[in-house]
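Field guide to reading this record: the first block holds the primary sequence, the second block holds the structure written as discrete tokens, and the final block holds curator observations. Each block starts with its own label. This record concerns tRNA pseudouridine synthase A, catalogued under organism Brevibacterium linens.

BLOCK 1 — SEQUENCE
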Amino acid sequence: MTRFRLDLGYRGTDFHGWAKQPGLRTVQTAVESGLERITGTEVATVVAGRTDAGVHARRQVVHIDLSDAAIEKLIGQSNRSAEVALLSRLRGVLAAGEFHDIVVHAVAEVSEDFDARFSALWRSYQYRLADHRSFIDPLLTQVTPRHKGELDVEAMAEAASEVQGLHDFLPFCKPREGATTIRTLHELRVVRDQDAVITIDLRADAFCHHMVRALVGGLIKVGSGNWAVTRPAELIAEADAGLTPDVPMFVTPAEGLVLTEVGYPAPEDYAARNAQTMARRDQE
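BLOCK 2 — STRUCTURE
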């Protein structure tokens, strides 16, 4: 088996998220169906981070394993490399199958140590939000939710600075059985862009279910004056102390969220990173 890394992006508007679901249009279903058509066999994908329904990805990462027979069928009678053939043919079959909302950026052969999920050092997201001060670009309305009134971005930025680091993000996560809510949040930054649209950038080793949109929701509560600047940090401190804060999550609309990038170590460090990630998850 030969392993390949696929870098791709998609507009999540018309997808029910990444993961396969019977009878629903998902990114994984589209990609795996395309791979089966060009290789003649079922191909399983491993993704860096599953995205929810309506969430977009600018740079998502996937790995797949192909047998020699699958590669032979993929290349056919051409003299192209497997990488070039895979990139060209997957792009073509997705477009022909009316999946123009998926873009395959690049394909590269990688070592078997590379794992799209476990080798990742961090994932970064951006959330776009317009308020009363923002210029509403008609070309971006589908990916920019609106908030009534004006938000205090300075207060949101201050609150964001107080929750970075290694914490239990239970107040801002939807827990899954057997999964940890402890994460390292490397960056949480809130600014207005040139159109006064609020952009919230987040980077962490990983994110638990709904964590990004719930954190954004908490910052909106701060910006609207419903929460004190210190409230998000206070909730996380309670969780760090082993308490379960009784505060309902405010999860913001999916259309404002984009997975922007996934970071990986140097190839010689893939195996060590895999072991570190999996060991930590087992212990937690």
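BLOCK 3 — OBSERVATIONS
The longest strand covers residues 56-66.
The chain has a mean pLDDT of 95.
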